[in-house]
């Protein structure tokens, strides 16, 4: 068997693929963060809580109304997105004129409150959520057994990431958004409702997080802690990619997922800090991040 | 206005600490210190605090004519935070004994502090045999279970069924090492082999990469030397990667009723596990469990019931000693037999190990479960002397 550094090649391919799957979650989550930061200049610490909410809404929909995975994939992000929009309109928007620190503290506090509430009612162990019947089982790729569901996660998250990037960079509404961040007064004077635009953006960011949450539900336990476990890594991804750079967040998400996967083969004990080591190195060499614009 | 609020807050705080200091004389105070918000929050958590309060109420709320109070705090699985709380409890809040102490790294740290301060600690939540081994304390007790009893129970059952080659997925801290080492030794003594192991950080969310390594090792049994949410996630993801269908078996070395409940019978069915208590064992255990359920909304596992037993026994020991002085109470705890819903015919060895029977359990199929929380078939009762390490071999210098 061919080996690299004593690791069988087949095993290495398997780990690369696993890294790509985890990277999909990092990419989806950091995408939402980057959109919100890029357009609103808000460091959204509630992102992990919104991800957790997405998973919980899917769980509750199934438990109480019998709505299954496929509709939940649309409905849960809509519900969480609407919740996000309400929060932005009535609470977060009041903080735009203050130091960005206030937004950070507010969203951090909100995340703690949401997580605490769910932990109170559902405990820390989490709730089970079965994958949809269509995607159970797996495919033998020769070098590894790929669960069909995980393959689906990679495909769908790639589509959503590219779709969001196209929406913001290539469409008219995206150009309004970008213009509004550059100079909101000017854009408003053209008759565009800027506050509404920002509300929708925050709602979109929250919906993206919730979408990732629904995707994650069949893989991980639906647990109140699932968001806080992943959010710090996702922040590191955004920082490495360059705060606010959407393409940067997507690419970095996948790359760091793969880097983490490889660490798990060569030195598993370091797997949960490798992302931060990379972050430290990038910050030393390129303080604006890999894809960020300097200044 | 704001100044007024701050001033009144300061006044309130000052007032309350003064009141605490006065009241703590002539009082027995027990501290329940554990994880109430992290991966082990369901394993013990707030419910252990309820169990402790139940024990105090069942004892009558008073011992030696002074009231008994239970306090609690969340150590977040961090030994430094736990040490701070323990010092504060002992030094300024007149806490007489600290119990529960889920997470081995925390338990070892707090036991060292208790030893230094000459205070009693009774560990029910943590697993490492170090507590009654090299790091034992004359005032330290290990009550509910330990890594050795889990290895004998779950490890023994699987080796008997032909699982003679093992690969370990191990939580990367004191508890994981201890559990892996105990189980590996046990497997080897019984003619099996260990083909490899991988260590993962505490509170990992994704185990797929570790599971893949375990899968390609070709071992017959994959030993999960972790606990709480980590084990649940590993089991769930193992089924996703077709590990059990591929002919390998999973050994959840530390898995309790609470985690089975979280995982659901569908995913957990067929797992073999070892606990020191099962609520549906007999009338006595069912009666206790029912009362516990009314307070917490869940059935107790061995951590909760073990904590109940530890508090109850501590109060009995204080009564027997006629004082809350540490030496006298420790002596009584070492001498008195344990006989309650948890530790039937239990004895306490010189190294602080409470020796009692353990149960080998198997998770039922969803169709066989007759009522909510009816999760286990009892496969075997492991007598205490087989389940626990011979104190003379524990490495504890208190054993002569």
Automatic annotation (TrEMBL), chain A:
Lineage: superkingdom: Bacteria
CDD domains attached to this UniProt entry: TM_PBP1_LivH_like (cd06582)
A single cellular component GO annotation: plasma membrane
Location in or out of the cell: Cell membrane
Pfam families reported for this sequence: BPD_transp_2
One GO molecular-function entry: transmembrane transporter activity
Biological processes, Gene Ontology terms: amino acid transport
Annotated InterPro entries: ABC_transp_permease, BCAA_transport_permease
Membrane topology of the entry: Multi-pass membrane protein
Keyword annotations: Amino-acid transport, Cell membrane, Membrane, Transmembrane, Transmembrane helix, Transport
Bilayer-crossing regions: 12-39, 73-92, 101-122, 149-168, 197-220, 232-258, 270-289
Family: Belongs to the binding-protein-dependent transport system permease family. LivHM subfamily.
Protein name (Swiss-Prot/TrEMBL): Branched-chain amino acid ABC transporter permease
Automatic annotation (TrEMBL), chain B:
Leucine-binding protein domain segment(s): 27-364
Membrane found in the keyword field: no
Pfam families associated with the record: Peripla_BP_6 (PF13458)
Keyword Protein transport part of the UniProt annotation: no
Alphabetical UniProt keywords: Amino-acid transport, Signal, Transport
GO terms of biological process kind: amino acid transport
Signal peptide start-end: 1-21
Alphabetized PANTHER family for the sequence: LEUCINE-SPECIFIC-BINDING PROTEIN (PTHR30483), PERIPLASMIC BINDING PROTEIN OF ABC TRANSPORTER FOR NATURAL AMINO ACIDS (PTHR30483:SF6)
Family: Belongs to the leucine-binding protein family.
The protein, known as: ABC transporter permease
Lineage: Bacteria, Pseudomonadati, Pseudomonadota, Alphaproteobacteria, Hyphomicrobiales
């Amino acid at each position: 068997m061919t080996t690299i550094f004593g690791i069988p090649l087949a095993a290495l391919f398997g780990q690369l693929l696993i890294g790509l799957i985890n990277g999909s979650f990092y990419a989806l989550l950091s995408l939402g963060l980057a959109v919100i930061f890029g357009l609103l200049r808000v460091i959204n610490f509630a992102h992990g809580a919104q991800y957790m909410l997405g998973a919980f809404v899917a769980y509750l929909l199934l438990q109480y109304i019998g709505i299954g995975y496929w509709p939940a994939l649309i409905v849960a992000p809509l519900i969480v997105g609407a919740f996000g929009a309400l929060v932005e309109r009535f609470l977060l928007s009041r903080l735009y004129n203050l130091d960005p620190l206030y937004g950070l503290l507010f969203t951090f506090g909100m995340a703690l409150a949401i997580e605490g509430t769910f932990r109170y009612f559902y405990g820390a162990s989490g709730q089970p959520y079965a994958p949809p019947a269509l995607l159970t089982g797996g495919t033998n790729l020769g070098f590894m057994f790929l669960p069909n569901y995980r393959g689906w996660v990679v495909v769908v998250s790639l589509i959503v990431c590219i779709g969001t990037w196209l929406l913001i960079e290539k469409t008219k509404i995206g150009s309004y958004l970008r213009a509004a961040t550059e100079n909101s007064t000017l854009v408003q004077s053209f008759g565009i409702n800027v506050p509404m635009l920002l509300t929708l953006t925050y709602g979109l960011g929250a919906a993206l997080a919730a979408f990732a949450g629904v995707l994650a539900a069949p893989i991980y336990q639906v647990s109140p802690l699932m968001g806080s476990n992943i959010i710090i890594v996702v922040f590191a991804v955004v920082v490495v990619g360059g705060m606010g750079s959407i393409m940067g967040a997507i690419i970095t998400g996948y790359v760091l997922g793969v880097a983490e996967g490889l660490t798990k083969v060569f030195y598993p004990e370091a797997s949960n800090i490798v992302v931060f080591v990379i972050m430290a190195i990038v910050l030393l060499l390129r303080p604006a991040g890999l894809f960020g614009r300097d200044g | 206005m704001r100044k007024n609020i701050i001033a009144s807050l300061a006044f309130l705080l000052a007032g309350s600490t003064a009141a605490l200091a006065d009241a703590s004389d002539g009082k027995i105070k027990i501290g329940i210190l554990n994880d109430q918000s992290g991966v082990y929050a369901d394993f013990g958590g707030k419910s252990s605090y309820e169990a402790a309060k139940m024990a105090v109420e069942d004892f009558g709320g008073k011992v030696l004519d002074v009231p008994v109070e239970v306090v609690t705090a969340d150590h977040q699985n961090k030994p430094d935070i736990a040490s701070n709380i323990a010092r504060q409890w002992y030094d300024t809040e007149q806490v007489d004994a600290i119990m529960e102490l889920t997470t081995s790294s925390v338990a070892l740290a707090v036991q060292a502090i208790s030893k230094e301060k000459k205070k009693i600690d009774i560990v029910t939540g943590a697993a490492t045999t170090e507590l009654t081994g090299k790091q034992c304390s004359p005032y330290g007790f290990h009550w509910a279970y330990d890594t050795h009893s889990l290895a004998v129970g779950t490890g023994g059952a699987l080796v008997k069924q032909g699982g003679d080659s093992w690969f370990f997925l191990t939580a990367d801290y004191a508890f994981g090492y201890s559990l892996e080492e105990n189980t590996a030794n046990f497997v080897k003594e019984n003619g099996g082999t260990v083909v490899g192991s991988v260590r993962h950080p505490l509170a990992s969310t994704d185990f797929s990469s570790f599971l893949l390594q375990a899968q390609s090792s070709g071992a017959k049994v994959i030993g999960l030397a972790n606990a709480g949410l980590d084990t649940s996630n590993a089991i769930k993801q193992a089924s996703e990667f077709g590990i059990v269908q591929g002919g390998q078996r999973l050994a959840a070395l530390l898995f309790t009723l609470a985690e089975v409940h979280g995982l659901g019978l569908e995913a957990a069915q067929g797992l073999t596990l070892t606990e020191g208590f099962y609520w549906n064992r007999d009338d006595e255990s069912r009666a206790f469990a029912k009362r516990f359920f009314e307070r917490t909304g869940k059935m107790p596992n061995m951590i909760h019931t073990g904590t109940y037993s530890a508090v109850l026994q501590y109060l009995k020991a204080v009564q027997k000693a006629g004082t809350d002085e540490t030496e006298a109470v420790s002596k009584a705890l070492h001498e008195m037999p344990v006989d309650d819903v948890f530790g039937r015919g239990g004895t306490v060895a010189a190294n602080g190990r409470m020796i009692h029977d353990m149960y080998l359990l198997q998770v039922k199929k969803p169709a066989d479960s007759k009522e909510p929380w009816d999760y286990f078939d009892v496969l075997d009762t492991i007598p205490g002397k087989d389940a626990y390490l011979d104190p003379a071999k524990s490495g504890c210098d208190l054993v002569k």
